[in-house]
């Protein structure tokens, strides 16, 4: 049992750093500090049912950044803030004997590093990080993986495609946008101004990613890891990223789902100019169906964004049905020839601004490529190199 004094010492040791993080203490926080409840405890049950899912701690739960919350035996949830529309990521800390396994790491930004420092000197104090697992290569997941593995001289665990793709994308930073990519966006119907914006933004991927370690441990689909004496099985999905790893613990009935399954957001599925003819949407639909088949329904899903929830099968079905509906809407929309940029109204309710243009383009081309592979649509290219998509009169469509 820890004494009250050691609670106090840790509490006050943490305070100056918390100020540096620019999170002023609220009244509620002061009363919590006064009752020495900074020691992480199990979250108090407060279930909320919404849109077919059950959120055990409500869907609006928003833990204070950097303060660990226990969600199961040996499993802690830490929310890290991010300075963008999607304003946070959920990081998972798993007790691993005399150390900790970290799942996902946040962007490499000063604020994220400071939160990690606070964790090292507070909650994680005296214990080392034994392994860093990244569910996939997106910067909010992999950003500080190199920094953490360097600091603790420990291994990075990722699937091979995610590791290699990440190193490849990071190496683009500082280079000019390639001509094939310019042609790809011109073909989609981008204006000169939009092309210029693309050129300027090119290479942004690597700007919030610390250099990855030069070696890694490859995670494979259905491989079993032992963490803290428990089995965690790797379940790979594809479509949002090429070889995304989820982690399933049968004993705790938990699924760390990364971005593969999110409760409210429909994860982005995009085609990129590096592989313009790919069909990630088909891979996405297949992996959602496969995960639904492989895993039981009664798991607590721990997503990388938003709140933990029950209802894995319901959510996977919703994700599949959403895209099927969008594919149908897009097909109908192409009764007259359209460019990629003319297809946004068929898929997105809100107006697509410059800010969301590249995501919307990638997602739209993913749907177009899926319909094209199914022989439901095709395109012609005009003299300016712009593609015009149209319905095929006699569809020989297949799934
Ligand atoms: Zn992602």
What's this model, at a glance?
This protein is an alpha+beta fold. Helices cover 34% and strands 21% of the residues.
SSE map:
Layout: H1 4-20, H2 27-34, E1 48-50, E2 53-55, E3 69-72, E4 75-81, E5 88-96, E6 99-103, H3 110-121, E7 128-133, H4 139-142, H5 145-152, E8 155-159, H6 160-170, H7 179-187, H8 192-201, E9 217-219, E10 224-227, E11 230-237, E12 244-249, E13 254-258, H9 280-294, E14 300-303, E15 309-310, H10 312-333, H11 344-347, H12 357-373, E16 377-381, E17 387-391
Parallel strand pairs: 6-7, 7-8, 8-9, 13-14
Antiparallel strand pairs: 1-2, 3-4, 4-5, 5-6, 10-11, 11-12, 12-13, 14-15, 16-17
This protein binds zinc ion.
Explain what this protein looks like in three dimensions:
The protein has helices at residues 4-20, 27-34, 110-121, 139-142, 145-152, 160-170, 179-187, 192-201, 280-294, 312-333, 344-347, 357-373, and strands at 48-50, 53-55, 69-72, 75-81, 88-96, 99-103, 128-133, 155-159, 217-219, 224-227, 230-237, 244-249, 254-258, 300-303, 309-310, 377-381, 387-391. By secondary structure, the chain is an alpha+beta fold. Strand 10 and strand 11 form a beta hairpin. Zinc ion (ZN) binds at residues 136, 138, 240-241, 259.
Oligomer: single chain
- Residue fraction in strands: 15-25%
**Widest β-sheet, arrangement of strands:** 3-4-5-6-7-8-9
User: What structural category characterises the helix and strand content?
Assistant: alpha+beta
CATH class of the largest domain: Alpha Beta
What small molecules are bound in this structure? Answer: zinc ion
Q: What is the level-2 CATH architecture name of the largest domain?
A: 4-Layer Sandwich
Helix content: 25-40%
**Kindly, what is the distance between the CA atoms of the first and last residues, rounded to a whole number of angstroms?**
59 Å
